[in-house]
Amino acid sequence: MLGIVMKQFSHFISQFCRVATVVATIALLTPAMSAQEIKxxxxxxxxxxxxxxxxxxxxxxxxxxxxxxxxxxxxxxxRAGIVGNAVGDIKFKAINTASEITQTQLVExxxxxxxxxxxxxxxxxxxxxxxxxxxxxxxxxxxxxYFAAGIFAGNRTFLxxxxxxDGALQSLYDANQKVEDYNAQFHTNYPPLGLKFGDYVxxxxxxYNIDVKMKTWAVKPYLGIxxxxxxxxxxxxxVALDAGLLFWGxxxxxxxxxxxxxxxxxxxxLTHFISWFSAYPMIQMxxxxxFF
Length: 292
Hints:
- With 292 residues, this protein is an alpha+beta fold.
- The protein has one domain.
- Helices cover 24% and strands 39% of the residues.
- The protein has helices spanning 2-29, 35-40, 104-107, 110-116, 170-186, 269-276; strands spanning 54-60, 63-73, 76-84, 90-95, 120-127, 130-138, 145-154, 157-163, 195-197, 200-202, 211-215, 219-228, 237-247, 252-255, 279-290.
- An eight-stranded antiparallel beta barrel has the order 1-2-3-6-7-12-13-15. A five-stranded antiparallel sheet has the order 4-5-8-11-14, with no helix packed on it.
- The two termini are 43 Å apart.
């Protein structure tokens, strides 16, 4: 999971460079204006509600997006926009848990034998996380620091896991069905067969695929701090850095049939991390251009 966040951060750096280039180009293409013309256009920020407009582009751990900002008060600015994750698929090999079966009757079953022949399966993690948001920024001091709070709302899926070889996991599906039948017949409690991801086992569905989603809340409160300006007071272009927490609840791994996957461990490993991961860290860099 940490590797995924680091990959997103690396992607953020490259995206930010592109954003900076775009905004710089806009600034250069804007006709030069005299001081009197600037004054006539009221470029300098006066106290008032919704009397200025800035459009910004941002990138960071929350993804890449666009927003608009307008003042509500001398010290309050409101921003609204959309942000999403554009990171490409991340591929890795997952271990088949059939190799851990030691119960004699199960080991001799043909379905179990076939599943044991599958060593590792390549899975692709597909980050697909998009949210619309509304944030209020409060600048209580005559410094670049500010506080931010608001709401993000969008899709619940943060990560989507799927095998890269479509429909190729029939042996894992058949073996897991045997384990379920064995547990029902002999009142045992053997864990499901599938692919390991930390303390979780992803089982194949009736289409012989691993199709698992890591889900969070659809509506997510946000609290953070920032440095810079989302709307420049005396210039066209402004830069700001936001850092905060997106409260999205404890993430859950869910099969494509809606069934929640239970962890094989309650005290350590990925389960412990997931329970702590109920707030997602957000670091976003924003560049904005003030139109009026």
